[in-house]
């Protein structure tokens, strides 16, 4: 995420979200202090053998970062380190007895008109369940439920081995939401956590967050709840947006984390001289369970906020492109590939070396839409949707604030609209989609109920 850092984008977003209870600030420019224990949070543990589903009762000081990564093996087609876990592959398959749902008719999913409420001239009040359920648009045969709400700006979603939804918020807490939509703090004390994922074998919760939140010279890390940081010294935090973000576990048993760039298009900040890339910036990293072995899986992704594996074993990443206005991108990531950053086509951009082959994006979208959350649909509950990719567009620019479906057969199409700032999407164990709206704290559930017979 990075486009709304521009004054124009900020003014637009503030105007759209000017309301009681709807905060018109940027997701990662929120001061990243821990939520006080008295209010919601408990401190992040850094050591010990407690189970990942336990919340520590006392504070343990978090170790400070010491050695930043200095060497990076080139990305390869096959893993170099040996993973220490066993991957459990998704078992959901297409049921041939379930009819295939047709694509939504042209124009059936449209952006609702802004409707004034007692809280805002743009959106319903945050607690107006009926108004929000009526506002969010989905294709025929689907329905939307206001599932629950957290205090703060959600940044990342993940379902745990207990079947419950976990929600990270920018203010530093990770909440656990029960089946009735009631959130309770699970763990806290992080600085702007923007990626959470459970290990598919041992159930431990991995967190990507900041250590030093500075535009220049910042630092991000990957941690395991109850064990502390396992990867430190990651590049951070250009305009306070680019950092270590989405985490996903791959079919090879490794963890993967996306790491943003330290500049707009590879420049030394404040100049237009080309900077030297740090080893891990603008990349997707692959790491083993304890972070003792790390390598660059792919490069050239300016700010891939989230990543997801599909049923074919392909990794997908949305990418936020530079501020001069090129289209946003979605990549089917190529191991060892160079996907574009810092070499773009503009008057002030830098030319790629002649021996570098740049991999073009798989799909492009409107400029400044800010692709954020991404998930692959590996359930059979939505008929005809298996292996579709869902991508959220977070920004307040016209044409964003929506969820796009990328069908394996037909490519992208609008799937759901009407949000204030949808930041992440995930699939629950029930086969439903869950969407986090950053601006309001609302979690929406999208389910398939079947089309009415005419």
Protein described:
The protein is mainly β and 454 residues long. It has a single domain (3-48, 82-448), classed as TolB, C-terminal domain (Neuraminidase, 6 Propeller). It is built from two helices and 24 strands. It has helices at residues 7-16, 129-135, and strands at residues 142-149, 154-159, 165-169, 174-177, 183-187, 191-198, 205-212, 218-224, 228-236, 244-249, 255-259, 283-287, 294-299, 307-309, 315-319, 328-332, 363-365, 371-376, 389-393, 402-407, 411-417, 422-427, 433-437, 442-448. The strands form six sheets. It has a four-stranded antiparallel sheet with strand order 1-24-23-22. The protein has a four-stranded antiparallel sheet with strand order 2-3-4-5, with no helix packed on it. A four-stranded antiparallel sheet has the order 6-7-8-9, with no helix packed on it. It starts with 6 loop residues before the first helix and ends in a 6-residue tail after the last strand. Residues 1-99 have low confidence and may be disordered.
Tell me the layout of helices and strands.
Blueprint (H helix, E strand, L loop, with lengths): L6 H10 L112 H7 L6 E8 L4 E6 L5 E5 L4 E4 L5 E5 L3 E8 L6 E8 L5 E7 L3 E9 L7 E6 L5 E5 L23 E5 L6 E6 L7 E3 L5 E5 L8 E5 L30 E3 L5 E6 L12 E5 L8 E6 L3 E7 L4 E6 L5 E5 L4 E7 L6
Antiparallel strand pairs: 1-24, 2-3, 3-4, 4-5, 6-7, 7-8, 8-9, 10-11, 11-12, 12-13, 14-15, 15-16, 16-17, 18-19, 19-20, 20-21, 22-23, 23-24
User: CATH homologous superfamily name?
Assistant: TolB, C-terminal domain
Amount of helix = under 10%
User: Architecture, CATH level 2?
Assistant: 6 Propeller
Spell out the helices and strands N to C: HHEEEEEEEEEEEEEEEEEEEEEEEE
Structural class: mainly beta
Strand order of the largest sheet: 1-24-23-22
What kind of sheet is the major sheet? 4 strands, antiparallel
Distance between the termini: 43 Å
Task: State the total count of DSSP E strands.
Answer: 24
Beta-strand content: 25-35%
Arithmetic mean of pLDDT: 81
């Amino acid at each position: 995420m990075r486009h709304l850092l521009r004054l124009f984008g900020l003014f637009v977003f503030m105007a759209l979200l000017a309301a009681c209870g709807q905060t018109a600030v940027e997701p990662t420019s929120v001061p990243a202090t821990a939520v006080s224990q008295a209010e919601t949070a408990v401190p992040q543990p850094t050591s010990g053998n407690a189970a990942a589903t336990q919340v520590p009762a006392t504070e343990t000081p978090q170790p400070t970062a010491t050695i930043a990564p200095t060497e990076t093996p080139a990305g390869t087609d096959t893993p170099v380190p040996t993973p220490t876990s066993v991957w459990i592959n998704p078992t959901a398959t297409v049921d041939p007895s379930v009819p295939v749902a047709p694509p939504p008719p042209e124009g059936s999913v449209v952006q609702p008109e802004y409707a004034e409420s007692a809280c805002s001239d743009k959106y319903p009040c945050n607690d107006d369940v009926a108004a929000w359920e009526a506002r969010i648009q989905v294709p025929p045969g689907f329905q939307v439920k206001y599932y629950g709400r957290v205090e703060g700006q959600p940044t990342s979603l993940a379902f745990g081995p207990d079947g419950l939804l976990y929600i990270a918020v920018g203010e530093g807490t990770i909440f656990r939401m029960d089946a009735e939509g009631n959130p309770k703090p699970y763990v806290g004390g992080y600085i702007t956590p923007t990626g959470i994922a459970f290990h598919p074998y041992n159930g431990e919760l991995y967190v990507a967050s900041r250590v030093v939140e500075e535009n220049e010279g910042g630092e991000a890390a990957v941690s395991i709840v109850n064990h502390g940081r396992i990867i430190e010294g990651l590049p951070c935090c250009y305009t306070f947006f680019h950092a270590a973000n989405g985490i996903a576990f791959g079919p090879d048993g490794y963890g993967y984390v996306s790491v943003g760039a330290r500049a707009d298009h590879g420049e030394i900040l404040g100049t237009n001289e080309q900077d030297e890339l740090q080893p891990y910036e603008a990349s997707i990293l692959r790491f083993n369970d304890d972070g003792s072995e790390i390598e660059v899986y792919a490069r050239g992704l300016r700010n891939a906020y989230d990543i997801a594996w599909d049923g074919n074993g392909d990794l997908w990443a949305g990418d936020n492109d530079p501020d001069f206005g090129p289209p946003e991108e979605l990549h089917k990531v190529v191991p060892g590939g160079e996907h574009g950053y810092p070499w773009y086509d503009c008057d002030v951009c830098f030319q790629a070396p002649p021996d570098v082959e740049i991999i073009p994006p798989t799909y492009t979208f409107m400029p400044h839409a800010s692709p954020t959350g991404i998930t692959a649909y590996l359930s059979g509950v939505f008929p005809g949707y298996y292996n579709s990719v869902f991508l959220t567009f977070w920004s307040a620019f016209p044409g964003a604030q929506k969820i796009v479906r990328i069908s394996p057969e037909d490519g992208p199409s609008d799937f759901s609209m009407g949000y204030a700032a949808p930041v992440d999407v995930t699939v629950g164990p029930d086969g439903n989609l869950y969407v986090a709206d950053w601006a309001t704290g609302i979690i929406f559930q999208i389910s398939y109920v079947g089309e009415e017979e005419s």
